[in-house]
Amino acid sequence: MIRNLGKIAGIIIAMLFLSGCNFINPKKTEINLEKNETESVEETQDNVGNIQNEEKKVEISSETEDDVVVVPNTEIVEKPKKETVENIDEPKIINKLADWGFSKSDNRKIDTIIIHSSYNAVGKDAHDLDDIIYKEYKPYGVSPHYIISREGKIYRLVEDKNIAYHAGESKVPDGRTGVNNFSLGIEIVNTKSEKPNDAQYGALNNLLAYLKKEYKIKYVLGHDDIAPGRKDDPWNFDFGKIK
Known about the structure:
By secondary structure, this protein is of the alpha/beta class.
């Protein structure tokens, strides 16, 4: 009996021992599992966050490249501003209006300028302006719109709006005749043996700039261009010196 009890006790102890081996530190195992799962989730979240940050950086970089171009070792250069045409003031013009040598007109279209030469052929001083105007133009009933003295002064003899008798029988390159009707005449005081001087070229350029602002000028021609064979002025004139 006692011997049987001992066997039974041994069997019970053995069973308890085996049962204890199957459940060693169950809580610790659960904690390790939870910790591993948590670390795995956190690691995944970190990776997702890093990917999103990288995508954001790429987007920002792409936008920046569209707006700003960085060129190393260069200075920032502003684009040149469009050039603007400044207002050209009327040059100093002295009125010496004639009462002959023109016809009154309103609203005529002016698109041509004719350059002439004149000198005083009836007096001692070839450059005497009054002799040219009153002893040459007036007796013949002719007149330009403007005359430029040897000193570079500009005189107005006929208003632009009126038709001055300065061109005579003539024709412009496009075939039109009656040149007085659509032109302005400018006389330069110089003889056949001398050239216009710098003061005269300067005054003429100022006058031309002003007239081109006022009217749509198609031609700037010499008298000899519109009446070849009949006229040979402007004498010794350099068209390369006018603008």
